[in-house]
Design goal:
alpha+beta, 8 helices, Deoxyribonuclease I, Chain A, transmembrane helix, nuclease, Endo/exonu/phosph_ase_sf, transmembrane, elongated, Endonuclease/exonuclease/phosphatase family protein
Length: 312
């Protein structure tokens, strides 16, 4: 009898290890059905993965090693997967526009970096008068939203304001009269996690609503459309996929390996939240990140434009 109970206990222990080893991979099937809970988990996923692996080994000793390795591997795939190159094509020769997006955290110390980025079109989040005064002389055309979203668009091409900030647009929508004209949705979507003051800039539900409204604008656009700026949407979460997978936009930063753009106090969370997304048979080339002195973000830039023949 004692031997039979021992065998039953061994089977239960083995099944527990198998279940714990398989469980992390359910993330990929459940992350969207989890809704807002999945959105929040996606933000903290790197830290949650490492802490969870440590707890498994601590509580289960040797039996926890395999589940911990599985958790670390699944977490790594979930975090790094959206950084892998996913080239949808090259920009047509002679048709590229260099676009940069940067959250400057209101720091005028970022102005030299912004100007040296050499962008034809520049999207600035957390713009302020000192930053604007430093950038404006380098660009003949600009549109600035000072109420709420603090987004500025600076351009070497004429701009026409199509839509200003509103309840479902935390930024600007402008028509850019580039050699191949396009609509630009320049955004600074409020942060859907706790701030240092113990509250939300926006709840996860509100953040999701704003990104869904952006996706609807993209879907309605009859021509080329670009979404750029600080979306505060990590690339491993549902809101990013609503623009890339659901609406079919191309992530211009993934023409090569991408990487996190949130730095300083949020670096442990490996968040890539500053984006350059293109739609309407447009592609992206030559992406890169660049430093923004004293900002808690890195800037992003890419050459964007209509795809070369047979691509996109």
């Amino acid at each position: 009898m004692r031997g039979e109970l021992h065998r039953r206990g061994s089977w239960r222990a083995a099944l527990t290890v198998v279940a714990l080893t398989a469980a992390p991979w359910a993330w990929f099937a459940l992350r969207d059905p989890l809704g807002l809970a999945g959105d929040v988990l996606a933000i903290v996923l790197p830290v949650l993965t490492v802490v969870g692996a440590g707890v498994l080994v601590w509580r289960l000793r040797r039996a926890g090693v395999l589940p911990a390795v599985s958790l670390l591997l699944a977490g790594t795939v979930a975090v790094v997967g959206p950084w892998a190159p996913d080239d949808a094509g090259s920009v047509r020769p002679g048709a590229a526009v260099t676009l940069a997006a940067a959250n400057v955290t209101g720091m005028s110390s970022t102005v030299p970096a912004l100007r040296s980025a050499g962008a034809d079109v520049l999207v600035v989040s957390e713009d302020d008068p000192a930053v604007d005064a430093g950038i404006a002389p380098a660009y003949p055309f600009r549109e600035v939203a000072s109420n709420g979203s603090h987004v500025g668009v600076y351009s070497r091409f004429p701009l026409r304001l199509l839509e200003g900030p509103g309840p479902d647009l935390p930024g600007l929508r402008v028509a850019v009269a580039a050699p191949v004209p396009f609509d630009l949705i320049a955004l600074h979507v409020p942060r859907p996690w706790f701030t240092g003051r113990g509250g939300y800039q926006a709840t996860p539900a509100e953040h999701h609503r704003l990104v869904e409204a952006t996706a609807a604008r993209v879907a309605r656009s009859p021509g080329p459309v670009v979404v750029a700026g600080d979306l505060n949407s990590t690339d491993r979460a549902r809101d990013y996929r609503s623009l890339v997978s659901d609406v079919g936009m191309v992530d211009a930063m993934r023409e090569r390996w991408a990487a996190p753009t949130q730095v300083t106090s949020w670096a442990l969370f490996a968040l890539r939240i500053d984006h350059v997304l293109v739609g309407g048979a447009w592609c992206g080339d030559a992406p890169r990140r660049f430093d923004l002195p004293r900002s808690d973000h890195l800037g992003v830039t890419a050459a964007i434009g209509p795809c070369s023949a047979g691509r996109g």
